[in-house]
Design a protein that fits this description.
alpha/beta; two-stranded antiparallel sheet; globular
Length: 443
């Protein structure tokens, strides 16, 4: 009996390295099944994720001691110690504007809302660069119902999201797990989905036609507002087209994940609700349903109740105005530490998903942080920020990096946008340059 040839392991880089030429190879017995699949498949896509936590932190409980690789975790960040090598703790970045609404609006735009007008957010800039081949160029998920009312001269509703597709258009997060699942993972080829998409297209066509007619009769700022509105409608139009004529997936996971539809309604337990939404976010990334995801753990004026945590009696917004009272500082820190645990859950779940030449976390860059440093006084300087994962993008993790004092938040956004391939040299007219030291020069 003849012996079968011994299988050897040849990875994709081995197959495609010669002279930089990519050619289709015949099937070879010497290549094991997994290596063959890897050679045939495209490299995993890169992704961008934002995890937003509202109301700031107590600085002394957040700030780590030491810089570079030799730093010590703070009480709030201790839940992230198990993934230390995946973190770049960033300090020295300053936001702009005053109060919860403006600071929330600035978190991903780097510019302050004025008369309801903001800038485009960095997640949407990146989505336009890397999200074109997906069913959804970006997704926005959250856990807290939107709020209304006024905060000074600003509508509180402007703090319900950090994602702005244009200076005048916000993207609201979905907070219902089943509704999010059905939107993300329904079968686009089903007759019901096709009929619904066709109806949406007819409505969008009608609105587009009417908006263009109005635009021809306006000038100046009104014309600009209508153009921004039209740009948003065109994004909806492209999404509908992807439903009616789904693109062939550019990336398929090595193992097909289970898609378990969540039960109806919103869980009463906050931790269960949050983890359901985070699971959906990861599933959407893993299946290449989207490559850009923004998670609002709560909106930017959150008064959520945390009495399920030991020792916590006040709502989150109330305890953030602690006036250095030890009991409120302790509650504030307990809640911030709980948020860090949820971020750790997300990052560890992403790290556990194998994508061949790295994990889902390796192929993703996650921005975790809050819109202000300390809720007591709405401190906007030295924001609490962490960049996570990003090995594929060359993120220099495993360190605490202190940016030059007074570095504008828009500089961070410009740096991230450029790393994801956006051809721009300024961000919302608010940046003064990039943040050096975030990424390796060779990547």
């Amino acid at each position: 009996m003849s012996r079968l040839p011994r299988r050897i392991h040849l990875n994709r880089r081995t197959l495609l390295r010669a002279a930089g030429v990519s050619v289709g190879l015949p099937w070879l017995e010497a290549i094991d099944d997994r290596a063959a699949r890897g050679a045939a498949a495209l490299q995993p896509p890169v992704r961008f994720v934002t995890f937003f936590q509202p109301n700031g932190v107590f600085p002394a409980a957040w700030d780590v001691s030491g810089v570079g690789c030799d730093y010590t975790f703070s009480p709030i960040l201790e839940p992230l110690a198990g993934i230390r090598d995946e973190l770049l703790i960033l300090s020295g970045i300053d936001s702009c504007g005053r109060g919860h609404v403006k600071l929330t609006g600035a978190f991903l735009t780097g510019t302050a809302i004025e008369n309801g007008v903001n800038g485009i957010s960095v997640d949407q800039v990146i989505a336009r660069t890397i999200g074109k081949g997906c069913r959804f160029s970006s997704i926005e998920l959250g856990t807290e119902p939107p709020r209304q009312g006024m905060a000074g001269d600003d509508p509180i509703a402007l703090a319900n999201t950090v994602s702005w597709i244009s200076p005048t258009q916000r993207l609201s997060p979905e907070i219902n797990p089943r509704a999010a699942f059905d939107r993300l993972f329904h079968d686009p080829a089903s007759p019901a989905a096709q009929r619904a998409a066709a109806r949406r297209r007819s409505v969008v066509d009608l609105v587009l036609d009417e908006a263009r007619q109005v635009q021809r009769r306006t000038s100046g700022r009104d014309r600009q507002k209508i153009e921004e509105y039209l740009a948003g409608l065109r994004d909806v139009e492209r999404q509908i087209e992807r439903t009616l004529d789904p693109p062939e997936p550019a990336w398929r996971p090595l193992r097909t994940p289970e898609k378990n539809r969540p039960p109806a309604g919103i869980p009463l337990e906050k931790d269960q609700h949050m983890r359901l939404m985070l699971d959906l976010l990861v599933l959407a990334l893993q299946t290449d349903t989207t490559r850009v995801a923004t998670f609002m753990s709560a909106h930017g004026f959150s008064r959520q109740n945390f009495t399920f945590l030991d020792g916590v009696k006040n709502d989150h917004h109330g305890m953030s105005h602690h006036k250095n009272q030890q009991s409120l500082v302790d509650e504030y820190t307990t809640v911030s530490r709980w948020y860090a645990k949820q971020a750790a859950y997300l990052l560890e779940k992403m790290r556990g998903i194998d994508e061949g030449e790295g994990s889902l976390l390796d192929n993703s860059l996650v921005l975790y942080g809050s819109e202000m440093k300390d809720g007591n006084g709405h401190v906007k300087n030295d924001l609490p920020l962490i960049l996570c994962g990003g090995g594929r993008l060359g993120l220099e993790t495993g360190q605490h990096l202190r940016a030059e004092k007074g570095t504008p938040l828009a500089n961070l956004h410009l740096t991230l946008a450029q790393r994801f391939g956006a051809g721009m040299d300024q961000f919302n007219a608010a940046s003064t340059g990039i943040v050096p030291g975030l990424f390796s020069a060779s990547s």
